[in-house]
Write a structure and sequence with these properties.
- The chain is of the alpha/beta class and 173 residues long.
- The chain has 7 helices and 5 strands, in the order βαβαβαβαβααα.
- The chain folds into 2 domains: 118 residues, Rossmann fold (3-Layer(aba) Sandwich), CATH 3.40.50.2300; 44 residues, no CATH class.
């Protein structure tokens, strides 16, 4: 299950987005400001970040810059009311990966998330410091996966051990 961090200061929108993502097979964690989001990022592993730009305290631009200082690979999607070209230009220069304007169509948001995760090697192999080979990416996306529910820490440990074995086997690390 992909873990998504939602950083949105509008409590109702934050809750709606998280509930929608949870109902659609993601594990979403909501934060109302960038400082709480940074704490969450240091406490756990996330596959994607959705962030507003205009928030009290640290804004989305500064938050994205801070994330990029310690993680160049995690996909970041801005979800914001700022539709001006300057805001978009600044966001993409910082290193965000996609941009969606409010009011947000949740189905479109889900499609954009799916596209970002398909193109992202972070969600699996970057945890081990290696890149997933293209042929393996194609193989994984063609086969349905069987899932077994474990606690987050057990799932993380299993995922890391499996990734280490695959990396070692194919000598991609």
């Amino acid at each position: 299950m992909f873990k998504i961090l939602v950083v949105e200061d509008d409590c109702a929108l934050n809750h709606s987005v998280c509930a929608y993502l949870d109902a659609n097979g993601f594990e979403a964690t909501g934060c109302l400001n960038a400082d709480d989001a940074c704490d969450k990022l240091f406490e756990g592993v996330y596959d994607l970040i959705i962030s507003d730009i205009m928030m009290p305290g640290t804004d989305g631009f500064a938050f994205a810059e801070e994330v990029r200082d310690f993680n160049k690979d995690i996909p970041i999607l801005f979800m914001t009311a700022r539709g001006d070209i300057e805001a978009k230009r600044r966001g993409f220069r910082i290193g965000i990966d996609d941009y969606v304007e409010k009011p947000v169509d949740l189905e479109e948001l889900k499609m954009r998330i799916g596209a970002l995760l398909r193109r992202s090697d972070f969600s699996l192999f970057s945890l081990m410091g290696c890149r997933m080979p293209r042929f393996l990416t194609q193989h994984i996306h063609k086969r349905p996966l069987k899932t077994i529910s474990y606690s987050t820490s057990v799932s993380y440990t299993i995922r890391c051990k499996c990734l280490a074995a695959v990396c070692e086997m194919f000598m991609f690390c």
